[in-house]
Structures are given as structure tokens and as C-alpha cells.
Specification:
With 490 residues, the chain is α/β, with parallel strands linked by helices. It has a domain of 269 residues: Amidase signature (AS) domain (Amidase signature (AS) enzymes, Alpha-Beta Complex), CATH 3.90.1300. The chain has 15 helices and eleven strands. The protein has an eleven-stranded mixed beta sheet with strand order 1-3-2-4-6-5-10-11-9-7-8, with helices on both faces. The longest helix has 22 residues. The radius of gyration is 21 Å and the shape is globular. The mean pLDDT is 96.
Length: 490
């Protein structure tokens, strides 16, 4: 096996035994990026020199054999370009921040540095995380490693594609309505969306503040769980951060599911689910039963309202959050404009792409005088009903399973001119964010060579449960071991 093909935990074992060095591993990852990223286009910016310096420092730390070394010391990781890394570009996939370099570190980056991970670069994203295909990036579209004519999902498509294409073993993304889980499903890897408040949002550029959460990507469940253990925890700089105990998530792993109750929502088999996706997910549910789980049907009656609720609340918050991009303090500016109002208008006209403008207009309308009660306030009430559906279901079951995405990866350009069809790509992931729950996606099959994702959702701050189910399923199957073949591979 080539070094770039190692999972994070395999690399960790070899590093701890002194069989490889972090510099060797990082050089192999950088060489892989050079080999295939021209076709995939996962990275917006590469931090090669900095990465090698971090790898050298990690090797020195191991040589000193100090106490309490992180298991992921010296392991490379990629960062979605919505997360601030000091001195590195932070564009959010937008032309309005094309030349912006962050002056400070996000809380999760501080934790990664303390643990000694090696940051390889910043990955492509739909502009300000608004999209399900990475086609809304202001720079270029990322391609799915399994089929270069298809999307990798979004908005964290760059991070998912980088892990799937073996250009890095680990990556961070952000999930506002499915933006970690959906690309994980479409790229055939594991993506974890932690509970709202589990991971600090300090230094995550805001899209919808009551929904955003930083999540983890890995080639298998162990990788994603190890990374979550590193980045989770309380941060006083984030007013929504919850001071809750952070366990070692891998300690919850078991080879069976005896004693666990698994719920299958009747509402998750609606019209529009690709037949191969339904077959693969139902087969996965049967496998969970074979592992000892008590599988039973549950009901989430307000599931159909998740999409309109999300697309009122998220754009409303986006309208407020993106008001700060005015051409005055940072980012793109149009000083040639004759007055301050033209500075605002021209800056935002030139800097924002069509999808961002669409969501700003939707959100501004929903918040405007005369419409606030009819739209925004009503959506908040329905959000409460959606959360109550999950609360009732979790009285009867430990986790809820179903499809991550209703289809496999669609072709580039297929849905870009039809916003509603694009929004439906996240129909099964939105509720998790609206309710503040934890969720993950893992591969559970393939259709015409394209990955299919199984979604597992759990109560807030009970990530151990969903990771335990995912690990047991993974050990009983080999879907996670498949790798795409990319032009340029030997």
C-alpha cells in the first residue's frame, strides 16, 4: 500500500512505531495532490511549505517521546475554506474574499495544531457554503473522484473529494443542512455532523448561525471519530458552545449492536428516492438487525416541512450574516463608486454569485415588514415541531437510520439551473440541523459504480451511539474499503 492510501489510524500506528515519518507521509500526500488534483480540483489553496515544516516539527516531537502525544500527531488534514487559518487564504469560495487572509485561527485549528496535525491546504466549497454540488464556488467546480463528470456534493465537496481521492486522510467541513453528510455519501467516505454546540464555531465564517456546525471527514468510521475527539469541546468564545464532557469516541466501538434500538422513519421512503439507493439502504438496515439491533418503524410526521422551513430560516440568517460584506472593512471593494450606496451595491454585485444573491433576497423578504410573522416566525414554529418529532422518536429508539441522499451523484450542470431540484438533494439531511442533532453518513453500497450513503442520526450530544452503530456496520461490510480509480493512477 502506498503511503497516501493509508487511513489516519493506520498512519498513526506506523508513526507511533517509527516505521514512517510525518515528513515522508506528508511528501506522499503532496505528491498525490500534484498527481490527481488537476482532474479533481479539490483544493483552492495548497500550503505545501507550511505542511512540511509542521511535519518536521511533529517528527521532532515524536523523537523526544514526551507524554500525552496525540494519536494524530503528524497526520495530514485538509480544511474547508470556510474555516479561518491564520496567514492562509480564507475565501469561502467567493470572489468577494478573493484576497482575504485570516488574521486569526479558528478554535478547531488551534485544537488541530495542539494535537500536531499537518494542514495541507484549504478545500473548495460552494460560495459561503450555499449549495449541494460545489458548482456554486466562485472559482471552479470540484469533480467527483468516482466519475469526473459528476458532482462531489456540497457544500463541503472539496474536502470530501480530497479524502475520497486519497489526497489526504482527514478533512474538516461544515454542515448547515447536510454539507458534510451529503458529499460524504456521494464520494463514498464517512462524514460526521456533530450536535449543535459540540464543536466551537469560533472562526467558522457564518452562513446560518443557528444551524452551522463543523464536522469531520475520514476514510472510515475510526478516522472520523478520532478527529472528532480532537476538535470537540467547550469554547467560551462561542456563545452557543456547550460545556459537555468529550469522550474518546472510539471507546464506544463494539462489533455488535445487541441492546440498541434502531428506528426507520416511514417518511424516508418518499417518491424521488432512486431505487438502487432504497435497495442498498434497506439491505444495510437488515444488516443492522443481523448484528443484533432491534429495528422498528418510527414516524417523523413533519419531515415534508423540513425543506421549506430550512429555506426560510437559513436564508434569513444568511441575509443578516452577509450584510457585513460591504466593501468597506475587508474583501472586495469598489472605491471608484461615486457614493457609499454605490460602493455597497457594486461590491456585492461583483463579489457575490447567483446562489448567494438568491438566498440573500429570499431571507431579506422573509424578514421584511409585513412578512416576518407569515414566513420567518411560522418557520421557527415548524422547526419546533420537527424537533419534537425527533424527541418523541428517541423515547422509543436510540438512533434513526435512512438514506443520506435520495440519489447517487448527479452530473455536473444537471441541476444547476433548477434550484428546487438542487435543494431536494438535502431532503433527508436538513432536519438534523433544524433539530440540533448529531448525524453521520457512511458508504453502504454502489449503483453503477457510484457510492450510496447510509445516514445515522442520534440525540444531541450522543455521538457515541451513532458512531457505535456505524462502526459495527462497517466491520461487517467492506464498502468503505473501495477506492476510485482516477486518471493518472498506476
Amino acid at each position: 500500500m502506498e503511503l497516501h492510501e493509508l487511513t489516519a489510524h493506520e498512519a498513526s500506528d506506523l508513526l507511533s512505531r517509527g516505521e514512517i515519518t510525518s515528513v515522508e507521509l506528508t511528501r506522499a500526500v503532496l505528491a498525490r495532490i500534484e498527481q490527481v488534483d488537476g482532474a479533481i480540483k479539490a483544493y483552492l489553496s495548497l500550503l505545501a511549505e507550511e505542511a512540511l515544516a509542521q511535519a518536521s516539527a511533529a517528527d521532532e516531537k515524536r523523537r523526544q517521546k514526551g507524554d500525552g502525544l496525540s494519536p494524530l500527531l503528524g497526520v495530514p488534514i485538509a480544511i474547508k475554506d470556510l474555516i479561518c487559518v491564520s496567514g492562509a487564504p480564507t475565501t469561502c469560495g467567493s470572489r468577494i474574499l478573493e484576497n482575504f487572509y485570516s488574521p486569526y485561527e479558528a478554535a478547531v485549528i488551534e485544537k488541530l495544531r495542539a494535537a500536531g496535525l499537518v494542514i495541507t491546504g484549504k478545500t473548495n466549497t460552494d460560495e459561503f457554503a450555499m449549495g449541494s454540488s460545489t458548482e456554486n464556488s466562485g472559482y471552479f467546480t470540484t469533480h467527483n473522484p468516482w466519475d469526473l463528470e459528476r458532482v462531489p456534493g456540497g457544500s463541503s465537496g472539496g474536502s470530501a473529494a480530497a479524502v475520497a481521492a486519497s489526497m489526504v486522510p482527514l478533512a474538516l467541513g461544515s454542515d448547515t443542512g447536510g454539507s458534510v453528510r451529503q458529499p460524504a455519501a456521494l464520494c463514498g467516505i464517512v462524514g460526521v455532523k456533530p450536535s449543535y454546540g459540540r464543536v466551537s464555531r469560533y472562526g467558522l465564517v457564518a452562513y446560518a448561525s443557528s444551524l452551522d456546525q463543523i464536522g469531520t471527514f475520514g476514510r472510515d468510521v475510526t478516522d472520523a471519530a478520532m478527529l472528532l475527539t480532537v476538535i470537540a469541546g467547550y469554547d467560551r468564545r462561542d456563545s452557543t458552545s456547550v460545556d459537555a464532557h468529550v469522550p474518546d469516541y472510539t471507546a464506544a466501538f463494539r462489533p455488535d449492536l445487541r441492546g440498541l434500538r434502531v428506528g426507520v422513519p416511514a417518511e424516508y421512503w418518499a417518491e424521488g428516492v432512486q431505487s438502487e439507493v432504497e435497495d442498498a439502504v434497506r439491505a444495510a438496515i437488515d444488516q443492522l438487525a443481523d448484528l443484533g439491533a432491534d429495528v422498528r418503524e418510527v414516524s417523523l410526521p413533519h419531515t415534508d416541512y423540513a425543506l421549506p422551513t430550512y429555506y426560510l430560516l437559513a436564508p434569513a440568517e444568511c441575509s443578516a450574516n452577509l450584510a457585513r460584506y460591504d466593501g468597506i472593512r475587508y474583501g472586495l471593494s469598489t472605491p471608484e463608486a461615486p457614493d457609499i450606496w454605490e460602493v455597497y451595491r457594486q461590491t456585492r454585485e461583483r463579489g457575490f454569485g447567483p446562489e448567494v444573491k438568491r438566498r440573500i433576497m429570499l431571507g431579506t423578504f422573509a424578514l421584511s415588514t409585513g412578512y416576518y410573522d407569515a414566513y420567518y416566525l411560522k418557520a421557527q414554529k415548524v422547526r419546533t415541531l420537527i424537533k419534537q418529532d425527533f424527541d418523541r422518536a428517541f423515547e422509543d429508539v436510540d438512533v434513526i437510520v435512512g438514506p443520506t441522499s435520495p440519489t447517487t451523484a448527479f452530473r455536473i450542470g444537471e441541476k444547476v439551473d433548477d434550484p428546487l431540484q438542487m435543494y431536494l438533494s438535502d431532503i433527508y439531511t436538513l432536519s438534523c440541523n433544524l433539530a440540533g442533532l448529531c448525524g453521520l453518513s457512511q458508504p453502504c453500497g454502489y449503483a453503477d459504480g457510484l457510492p450510496i450513503g447510509l445516514q445515522i442520526q442520534g440525540p444531541a450530544f450522543e455521538e457515541e451511539k451513532i458512531l457505535r452503530v456505524a462502526y459495527a456496520y462497517e466491520q461487517a461490510t467492506d464498502w468503505h474499503k473501495r477506492r476510485p480509480t482516477i486518471a493518472g493512477d498506476a
